[in-house]
Design a protein that fits this description.
Elements: E1 7-15, H1 19-35, E2 41-45, E3 57-60, H2 63-68, E4 81-82, E5 86-91, E6 96-98, E7 112-115, H3 116-129, E8 133-136, E9 140-145, E10 152-157, E11 160-162, E12 168-173, E13 177-185, H4 192-201, E14 212-221, H5 226-229, E15 235-240, E16 249-257, E17 260-268, H6 280-287, H7 289-295, E18 299-309, E19 320-321, E20 324-326, H8 342-362, H9 367-370, H10 372-378, H11 381-388, H12 392-396, H13 400-413, H14 458-464, E21 477-479, H15 482-493, H16 497-500, E22 506-510, E23 518-522, H17 532-536, E24 542-544
Parallel strand pairs: 1-2, 1-13, 2-8, 5-15, 13-20
Antiparallel strand pairs: 3-7, 4-7, 5-6, 9-10, 10-13, 11-12, 14-17, 14-18, 15-16, 16-17, 19-20, 21-24, 22-23
The structure holds flavin-adenine dinucleotide.
């Protein structure tokens, strides 16, 4: 589009309403107030409301929150439960081994069990009360650069009211150009605008490949919560069954109080077998005798899915550029051994805010001025957490004995291990052709296990995530070359998109135009916005872009 758009100028623009940017916005207003600065600040979020795309019934390490809002408990912080103890179990097909030793990273005693959806809504209320202009239902569609293409000057929001063929409906509203002196990108894992920035400004060429896990999570309402009542712990992390031991991933169960548990399973996207259905390990986890006993008689009340960036320190791109910064999960800012990214995202947003205040005082927004951000990170606890986990995910992807040796050595050397700066293969390149797996079965579940109450199938999961998109809009998932799907991919991998998508967005159907061939039918309305397809397609043939703002999941608890 070459239309002249309405332009709205701001001092600072935050793209994404997750913990990174909301904490950044609050910290920015706090510091600006202290210095008597008057700022125009905006935050856009693609979800219909703040929190509607926030997945993870999560454990919050309150470290960053204590700094952001020391009296947070008096300010109505929405906590579901407090962790009173941890259990760490190793599962085989039908046995459970309680590990006698719980690594220090996952000591969660005293931490808070939260609904990330509620938590982000609460942060947004605080930010709004301090004067931040919050615009839910607006997706950042395009990064705006200066004429030289080297400085970010803002973001264009997505058009609304386009018909499925891209033409304008009577309800059409053109996207707006939100112009800013500084833009903070906090899009979470696999940010679509961050992908553009990385290419345009060469932010990631000297970093290790990003790595991801896809996590499926549910809140289950139980008739009674007898299991945790009798235990000294209310937080469980599980390794082993049903995943192969050299594939990163695992499960968790957190007691959320009020007869609810948060249960989830993460699968490393470095998996090799194209037959793997991303939802099957989660279902098998729920059916394991140890887990089945905890959730017996329960009903799934909400499901959510999202990828999380797990590559850690070495996969972080450059965090600053002319006119902007990256914060949180979109920059792989995640404590990988601790399985936690909320407090690290929050801290990075807060340090971004400190950087911006200094830049505003100097009236300079070039990358040299914004580089203070990297110094602030280096001087903070955030750096220590990220640096200690620098080789962790790489070790997780090793075969069992090597994995144990690497992880043990990293544990005692605080991250250095047997070999420092270990590398990792891009998730897109790890899948092997289906011929290698003909004799070997992928994790799979029988379809008769679904009762759609406690064990739910994909479409019921979509329903329980309250995912909705306007049906007659252009597809936000682009298959670049459908011929690849029908021919190469079908033969070599058996169209893995039909299995790695948890929302059944991709369906292989007979191609009426070419008898004997298949075509991929898209159901974009089912999309959880997890972005697994953008990462794992072996031909890099799928691009995920933001749909019309306001579409997507409608989480309230997850
Ligand atoms: C299953 C699962 C369990 C987890 N459990 C825990 C846990 O127990 N503890 C923990 O600390 N961490 C946990 N995490 C990780 C944690 O959720 C993330 O690290 C954290 O949410 C990252 O915060 P963020 O603000 O960077 O990004 P997000 O939380 O992903 O927020 C980004 C926001 O930006 C919006 N957005 C993205 N692109 C655009 C755009 N172009 N325009 C407008 N809006 C946009 C998104 O809709 C979203 O609301 C878990 C993750 C998963 C998937």
């Amino acid at each position: 589009m070459t239309d002249q758009r309405e332009q709205i100028p701001f001092d600072v623009l935050f793209v994404g309403g997750g913990p990174a940017n909301l904490s950044g916005a609050i910290q920015l207003m706090t510091l600006a107030n202290e210095k008597g600065m008057e700022l125009e600040v905006a935050l856009i979020e693609k979800g219909a409301e703040i929190g509607s795309h926030a997945v993870s019934g999560a454990i919050l390490n309150p470290r960053a929150l204590e700094e952001l809002m020391p009296d947070y408990e008096d300010q109505g912080f929405p906590v579901e439960a407090t962790v009173r103890g941890d259990a760490f179990v190793f599962l085989t097909k039908d046995k459970t081994f309680h590990m006698p030793f719980i690594p220090r990273y996952i000591h969660n005693d005293g931490f808070h069990v939260i609904s990330l959806s509620r938590f982000t809504r609460w942060l947004a209320e605080k930010a709004e009360a301090m004067g931040v202009n919050i615009f839910p239902g607006f997706s950042g569609d395009e990064v705006l650069y200066d004429e030289k293409g080297s400085t970010v000057i803002g973001v264009r929001t997505g058009d609304k009211g386009l018909d499925v063929d891209g033409s304008r409906k009577p309800t059409f509203e053109a996207g707006i150009d939100l112009m800013a002196k500084v833009t903070v990108f906090g899009e979470g894992a696999r940010g679509s605008l961050v992908g553009d920035l990385e290419k345009q400004l060469d932010l990631a060429s000297s970093s290790m490949s990003q790595a991801y896990e896809t996590g499926i999570k549910e809140v289950i309402h139980l008739p009674e919560n007898r299991f945790f009542e009798k235990k000294a712990f209310n937080c469980i992390h599980a390794l082993g069954f049903p995943l192969d031991f050299d594939l990163p991933g695992g499960g968790f169960i957190y007691d959320m109080g009020q007869q609810r548990v948060a249960i989830g399973y993460l699968v490393g996207l470095s998996y090799e077998n194209p037959h793997l259905d991303i939802c099957d390990p989660f279902i098998q986890f729920k059916q394991h005798p140890f887990v089945a006993d905890i959730i017996k008689g329960g009903k799934v009340v909400e499901q959510g899915v999202r990828t999380v960036s797990t590559g850690g320190y070495f996969s972080m791109p450059q965090l600053v550029f002319n006119g902007g910064l990256l914060a949180g999960g979109c920059a792989a800012i995640h404590n990988v051994p601790a399985l936690k990214g909320i407090h690290t995202a929050m801290k990075s947003g807060m340090l971004a805010a400190e950087t911006i205040v200094q830049a505003l005082e100097k009236h300079r927004f070039d990358k040299e001025t914004l580089a203070v951000y990297q110094d602030l990170i280096a001087a903070s606890w955030l750096y220590k957490e990220l640096y200690e986990g620098r080789n962790f995910y790489q070790a997780l992807a090793k075969p069992p004995v090597l994995k144990a040796l690497h992880l043990g050595a990293q544990y005692v050397t605080r991250g250095k291990g047997l070999r420092d700066h270990m590398t990792i293969t891009d998730d897109r390149l790890t899948m092997k052709a289906q011929k290698h797996f003909l004799a070997e079965k992928a994790v799979s579940v029988d379809k008769d296990v679904f009762d759609n109450v406690l064990i739910v199938d994909k479409l019921t999961g979509v329903f329980l995530s309250k995912t909705m998109h306007r049906e007659d809009q252009p597809a936000h998932l682009m298959i670049h070359d459908p011929e690849i799907c029908a021919d190469q991919c079908q033969k070599e991998y058996g169209n893995p998109c039909t299995r790695f998508c948890p929302g059944n967005v991709y369906e292989a159907v007979p191609d009426e135009q070419h008898p004997g061939r298949i075509r991929i039918k898209l159901n974009p309305s089912n999309c959880f916005h997890c972005k697994t397809c953008d990462i794992k397609d072996p031909y890099d043939n799928i691009t995920w872009a933001c749909p019309e703002g306001g579409g997507g999941p409608g989480y309230t608890v997850v």
